Amino acid sequence: MEFKIQAVYAGDGQVELVHGLTGTRIMTDLPLDNGGKGRCFSPTDLAAAALASCVLTIMAKVAARDGIRFEGTTFEIEKHMSESPRRIGRFTGWVKLPEGLTEKQRAKLAACVDACPVGRSLHPDVKLDFKFL
User: Which of 132, 70, 60 minimizes the C-alpha distance to 95?
Assistant: First the structure.
């Protein structure tokens, strides 16, 4: 499926992004560690957000298919930048799954990290290190 996002430079380091199908708008800003003001998500913050939401979406789909209770699952992700060249070096974090899941259910949900199209699209040098609670 093809999809468009319109990006417009709004000035002062900010870009407005418009979702092609719905018109939903979000802003990005230069991050503090790169000379910006950090007023909202940076472009690399959106990469972290995309990865976290992708993993949770894939997990939710598997959980629904298999009758696994999934509501309330939480994913906290942290982006770590590399300096030379400046890029995302790794993502770390944790996923808190609902209590009472069997080890088989937990393993099935943890495997969703590898099925996420966002994660699969990252350069192989970008490391992923997530723990499951």
Answer: 132
Query: What confidence score (pLDDT) does residue 3 get?
Result: 87
Give residue-wise pLDDT tens across range 73-82.
999 999 999 9
Structural domain harbouring 109: 43-132
Mean pLDDT of the chain: 94
What are the backbone angles phi and psi of residue 34, rounded to the nearest 5°? -130, 30
By the 10 Å C-beta count (0-12 exposed, 13-18 middle, 19+ buried), 112 is classed as buried
- Strands across the sheet containing 14-19: 5-11, 14-19, 25-29
Q: How far is CA 39 from CA 34, 51, 65, 70, 99, in A?
A: 13, 21, 39, 32, 36
Give 28-53 pLDDT, tens digit per residue: 999 998 889 999 999 999 999 999 99
Distance CA 126, CA 113 (A): 14
How many domains are contained in the chain? Answer: 2
